[in-house]
Amino acid sequence: MSRVGSTAPYHYDRCAVTAERDRFPILVHVVVRRGSAILLLRRARTGYLDGWYALPGGHLARGESVRDCAARELREETGLVVDAEALLPLVALPYRAGDEQGINLLFECSSFAGEPVLAEPELFDDLRWCAPDALPARTVPYLADALRMAASGEWFREFG
């Protein structure tokens, strides 16, 4: 990395990078609220936590804004349409699991168009509204902590 001039932004010299960069996925999720309930999807046939309930969400695409990713994933997985700018940041959860490392970013919305459906039945086999304090037994491990964090005003915690 080099600095050009005293006011220029940092830039990377691609020729100077010889080692393979670490993969660092950015996952974006949406806590959709209707009254006192949140929307969950049960993962199926994905190869990762199949049979577990999770929030709608997925990987940030190169060049995509985080809010646009959240709105896109919500639409792709549930058919719900939201204004990306109306999504409220909720919590940030960096994680490490073995050799994997990344960050989960959770947003919140309570205003959306449409009724949720299983828009990707090849990836999910159930959709349900649940009270945050009565999540299904098989819910992704970070979700209960993330909801407690948000309720207490805590926005950041590292896991793993």
Global outline: globular
Question: Overall pLDDT, averaged?
Answer: 88
Rg, alpha carbons = 18 Å
Named CATH architecture: Alpha-Beta Complex
- Which parts are unreliable, with pLDDT below 50 for 5 consecutive residues or more? 1-19
CATH class category? Alpha Beta
Instruction: Report the portion of residues in β strands.
Output: 25-35%
CATH topology: Nucleoside Triphosphate Pyrophosphohydrolase
Number of helices: 2
Number of strands: 7
Overview of the molecule:
By secondary structure, this protein is an alpha+beta fold. It contains two helices and seven strands. It has one domain (20-152): Nucleoside Triphosphate Pyrophosphohydrolase, CATH 3.90.79.10. Helices cover 16% and strands 30% of the residues. The chain is globular.
Quick overview:
The chain is of the alpha+beta class and 160 residues long. Strands 1, 2, 3, 4, 5, 6 and 7 form a 7-stranded mixed beta sheet that branches.
Describe the structure using short key phrases.
single chain, 160 residues, alpha+beta, Nucleoside Triphosphate Pyrophosphohydrolase, seven-stranded mixed β-sheet, 2 helices, disordered N terminus
SSE topology sketch:
Blueprint: E1 26-34, E2 37-43, E3 53-54, E4 57-59, H1 66-78, E5 88-97, E6 100-109, E7 124-130, H2 141-152
Parallel strand pairs: 1-6
Antiparallel strand pairs: 1-2, 1-4, 2-3, 2-7, 5-6
